[in-house]
Design goal:
Blueprint: E1 2-7, E2 12-20, E3 23-31, E4 35-42, E5 45-53, E6 58-62, E7 65-67, H1 74-86, E8 88-100, E9 109-120, E10 131-137, H2 138-146, H3 153-165
Parallel strand pairs: 4-9
Antiparallel strand pairs: 1-2, 2-3, 4-5, 4-7, 5-6, 5-10, 8-9
């Protein structure tokens, strides 16, 4: 059995039957096209966006990110999202890693990129987005994670990756 429960603008939910240890079980799965996130560094600062996220009921501090569109590569999405959200035209993007967001119930994979080679232009957020861009000192950003001021998982992963491998 593979039953469509919901189909929305960005994702769909299906109820699927599978067999594990010779037992038939049902799983509800969110199918998502994937997303990108970009860690942008200038001097001794990272670029963040502050935006309202309705499920959390608060404005979160995150690195720029966005959903893959049909027939778009992760690199193309990263360039588009950086320009839309932050007015950053990336001259070069380095792919770092990709990771599942919540593999127990969701197919979404985030492709993480890094750049410090860019030009600042004018942002052009989507109509329903209210985004503020902020540059935060690298060490201050790590303190903000420690103090639970940065709560977004992709942002915490990106900063942790940077600290471990750069």
């Amino acid at each position: 059995m593979n039953k469509l429960i919901y189909k929305g603008k960005v994702f769909e939910v299906r109820s699927e039957e599978l067999t594990i240890n010779n037992k038939k079980i049902l799983r509800d799965v969110i199918y998502h096209p994937g997303a990108v996130a970009i860690l942008v560094k200038k001097n001794n600062q990272f670029l963040f966006v502050r935006q309202y996220r309705h499920p959390s009921r608060e404005k979160l501090i995150e690195i720029p990110a966005g959903t893959l569109e049909e027939n778009e590569t992760p690199t193309e999405t990263a360039k588009r999202e950086l320009l839309e959200e932050a007015g950053i035209k990336a001259n070069e993007l380095t792919f770092l890693i990709k990771f599942f967001v919540a593999p127990g119930y969701c197919s979404e994979i985030i492709h993480l990129f890094y750049t410090e080679n860019f030009e600042i232009t004018k942002n052009n957020p989507e109509e329903e987005e209210d985004i503020e861009t902020i540059w935060i000192d690298i060490e201050k950003a790590y303190e903000m994670i420690k103090n639970n001021e940065i709560k977004d998982a992709k942002t915490i992963i990106a900063l942790t990756y940077y600290r471990c491998f750069f």
